[in-house]
Amino acid sequence: MTTAPLEIERRFLVARLPDLEGAVPAAIRQGYLSWPGDRVELRLRRSGDACFLTLKSGSGLAREEREAAIDQAAFETFWPATEGRRIEKTRWTGWLAEGRVFELDLFEGAHAPLRIVEVEFESVAAAEAFAPPDWFGAEVTGNPAYSNRVMSVEGVPSDAGPTRT
C-alpha cells in the first residue's frame, strides 16, 4: 500500500504587500472540472506555458494532492468544461526571512483585489509551529469560502476585509 502525496499548507489574507524584489511572478489561469461540494477537486491550470491537471481531496491543513503535467492540446480540450468556474491571478513566489517559500496570489478580474498568501510545509508539526510575518493578515486555512474552487463559483467572500480595499 502506498501513501498518497500530501499538501500541507497554511493560507492567509494579506494585510499589506511585502517587498517583492527577488520574487518571481507567473500568470495563472485555472478552471475547475468539479463543483464546490464535490468530494474531490479536479482542476486545470496554466502557469506560463506549462499546463497541469490536479486532483485534490480532503480539507484543512493537510490534503491529498496529485498533479500531472499535460500538453496544451489536452488543456484546450477540457478548458471549455470549466466555464463559470475559473480564477485568474498572478502568483509571486519568494522567500520569507526564515528560508520558507511563500506564494502570494494577486487575484484578477471578478476576484480582484483579493490577495492570499500560502506557505507549504514538510510536516503538520512544522506548519503548526510557523509564526507568520507581520504582512500576513487573517488566517483562512480550512475556510472553504476562501478555496479557489468555491471562489470560482461564488466570488470573493464578503468578509475578505482589508484585501478588498
UniProtKB/TrEMBL annotation:
Residues 5-152 form the CYTH domain. The active site is at Y32 (proton acceptor). PANTHER family: SLR0698 PROTEIN (PTHR40114:SF1). This is CYTH domain-containing protein. It comes from Palleronia aestuarii.
